[in-house]
């Protein structure tokens, strides 16, 4: 009785759950589950066992896993002076310390606003034609005349090329190929153990990152000269960032910040949209009713325009059914599994103390599968999004939320809608094999990359 009456000390009020073996903790369990397509179950089992808040150790750091609508709100709306973003050491070393993920407070706001000035709908409207040209060229090169293609690697190539064109203003050719090669090497070691030993993935990745930074430095130099000669500041993201001036008429975003954030956008932008498009293609092959509805919508748009005309912003606004399919795909297979934050002071949550310096782990899929908001959550049903206002806030979070909500949302939406428009109106396809399993690495990937048989409608 005496013990239970005594006020518990903060150190006793840390959340339940074991921290596991030192350093390794539960990391291997989670990584193994991600590769085996059981990460959602791994997380759900923990939630069932320990409740809404529990502790574990992930990637060498004591971590508190919280879930549910209130937890999402807590993570996304917490004061930046109490909670900062947290990346793994390898990501920080490869992408650099001035990328958005590493910035906080006023610096984060300043750089984010600069990026948003390029990524906001009003500005992106002017680049639909450029995105569309990349998609048309991609289909001509990699799909037309083929009987079989593997979707995921092709979608990665496509989103990579779109980003190269829009963000760097680097046209097709030897220079873009060099960029692509170094970027691929850089990305491969991003989720590895950050010990820099020769011949490891991480070591190759760091070397590639240095080469990419050198290429970007040269590119920035050239663009500065072009701007001085009177070139438009709206050619691409780099020129746009170079032309933003502060009150003192000096560049608002430093050269270092431009380099690190262009690398971040390349990584954040291409691996996520390519996954979304890949899973929509798989869904359309498996679900004839949804395919028929998307095809009807896209054919109507196609037939309402002179042949060969580019899509307009208004056309994209009419693709409501296609976007609902995309939203339901993001609910069922969110490309980003979750993320981390770091506490900057002891924080009390649900009666427990999350000590200063600990990680907070949030996971996208938990509320996506809540049957109070999404009845029969395992069923694929795009109609759930007919009235998005009926979904309470912080339940649907494929793009995160709050001050760090994904700034690439509109960009991802445009490239997804335009790609699906061309695919359904130009091709029919069926799966070569039952590629219904996927692993997370860390974004989801069908285990065989999704090979499909295709027929061009021109050939029918
Ligand atoms: C389907 C596609 C995409 C999904 C599902 C997605 C999802 C996310 C998520 C979950 C976050 C983390 C939010 C947080 O930590 O609270 C994020 C951040 C971010 N995303 Fe995306 N993203 C997508 C596409 C893009 C694209 C196309 C770009 C760039 C063109 C982009 C750029 C970024 C950046 C720069 C951040 C960091 C924001 C910050 O820390 O302030 N993303 N995204």
TrEMBL record:
<keyword id="KW-1133">Transmembrane helix</keyword>
<keyword id="KW-0472">Membrane</keyword>
<dbReference type="InterPro" id="IPR017972">
    <property type="entry name" value="Cyt_P450_CS"/>
</dbReference>
<keyword id="KW-0503">Monooxygenase</keyword>
<dbReference type="GO" id="GO:0005506">
    <property type="term" value="F:iron ion binding"/>
</dbReference>
<keyword id="KW-0812">Transmembrane</keyword>
<dbReference type="Pfam" id="PF00067">
    <property type="entry name" value="p450"/>
</dbReference>
<feature type="binding site" description="axial binding residue">
    <location>
        <position position="406"/>
    </location>
    <ligand>
        <name>heme</name>
    </ligand>
</feature>
<dbReference type="GO" id="GO:0016712">
    <property type="term" value="F:oxidoreductase activity, acting on paired donors, with incorporation or reduction of molecular oxygen, reduced flavin or flavoprotein as one donor, and incorporation of one atom of oxygen"/>
</dbReference>
<keyword id="KW-0408">Iron</keyword>
<keyword id="KW-0732">Signal</keyword>
<dbReference type="InterPro" id="IPR036396">
    <property type="entry name" value="Cyt_P450_sf"/>
</dbReference>
<keyword id="KW-0349">Heme</keyword>
<dbReference type="GO" id="GO:0016125">
    <property type="term" value="P:sterol metabolic process"/>
</dbReference>
<dbReference type="InterPro" id="IPR002401">
    <property type="entry name" value="Cyt_P450_E_grp-I"/>
</dbReference>
<dbReference type="InterPro" id="IPR001128">
    <property type="entry name" value="Cyt_P450"/>
</dbReference>
<keyword id="KW-0560">Oxidoreductase</keyword>
<dbReference type="GO" id="GO:0020037">
    <property type="term" value="F:heme binding"/>
</dbReference>
<keyword id="KW-0479">Metal-binding</keyword>
<comment type="similarity">
    <text>Belongs to the cytochrome P450 family.</text>
</comment>
<protein>
    <submittedName>
        <fullName>Cytochrome P450 CYP4/CYP19/CYP26 subfamily</fullName>
        <ecNumber>1.14.13.109</ecNumber>
    </submittedName>
</protein>
<dbReference type="GO" id="GO:0016020">
    <property type="term" value="C:membrane"/>
</dbReference>
């Amino acid at each position: 009785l005496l013990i239970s009456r005594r006020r518990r000390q903060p150190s006793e009020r840390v959340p339940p759950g074991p921290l596991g073996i030192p350093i390794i903790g539960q990391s291997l369990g989670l990584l193994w589950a991600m590769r085996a397509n059981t990460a959602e179950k791994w997380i759900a089992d923990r939630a069932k066992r320990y409740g809404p808040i529990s502790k574990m150790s992930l990637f060498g750091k004591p971590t508190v896993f919280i879930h549910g609508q209130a937890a999402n709100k807590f993570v996304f709306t917490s004061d930046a002076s109490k909670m900062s973003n947290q990346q793994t050491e390898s990501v920080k070393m490869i992408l650099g310390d001035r990328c958005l993920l590493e910035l906080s407070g006023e610096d984060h706001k300043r750089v984010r606003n600069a990026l948003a000035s390029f990524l906001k709908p009003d500005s992106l409207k002017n680049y639909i034609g450029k995105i569309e040209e990349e998609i048309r060229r991609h289909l001509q090169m990699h799909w037309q005349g083929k009987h079989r293609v593997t979707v995921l690697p092709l979608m990665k190539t496509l989103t990579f090329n779109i980003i190269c064109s829009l963000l760097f203003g680097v046209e097709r050719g030897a220079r873009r190929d060099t960029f692509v090669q170094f970027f691929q090497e850089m990305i491969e070691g991003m989720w590895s153990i950050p010990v820099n030993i020769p011949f490891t993935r991480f070591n190759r990745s760091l070397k590639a990152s240095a080469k990419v930074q050198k290429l970007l430095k040269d590119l920035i130099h050239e663009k500065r000269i072009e701007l001085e000669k009177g070139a438009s500041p709206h050619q691409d993201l780099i020129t746009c960032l170079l032309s933003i001036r502060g009150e003192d008429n000096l560049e608002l975003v430093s050269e270092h910040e431009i380099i690190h954030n262009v690398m971040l956008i390349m990584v954040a932008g291409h691996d996520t949209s390519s996954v979304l498009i890949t899973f929509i293609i798989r869904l359309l092959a498996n679900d004839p009713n949804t395919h028929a509805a998307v095809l009807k919508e896209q054919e109507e748009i196609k037939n309402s325009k002179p042949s060969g005309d580019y899509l307009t912003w208004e056309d994209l606004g009419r693709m409501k059914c296609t976007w609902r399919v995309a939203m339901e795909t993001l609910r069922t297979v969110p490309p980003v599994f979750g993320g981390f934050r770091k506490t900057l002071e002891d924080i009390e949550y649900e009666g427990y103390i999350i000590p200063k310096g600990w990680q907070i782990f949030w996971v996208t899929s938990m509320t996506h599968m809540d049957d109070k908001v999404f009845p029969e959550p395992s069923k694929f049903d795009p109609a759930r999004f007919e009235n998005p206002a009926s979904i309470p806030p912080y339940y649907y979070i494929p793009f995160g939320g709050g001050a760090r909500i994904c700034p690439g949302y509109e960009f991802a939406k445009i490239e997804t809608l335009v790609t699906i428009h061309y695919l359904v109106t130009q091709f029919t396809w069926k799966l070569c094999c039952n590629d219904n399993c996927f692993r997370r690495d860390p974004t989801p990937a069908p285990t065989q990359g999704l090979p499909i048989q295709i027929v061009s409608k021109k050939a029918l």
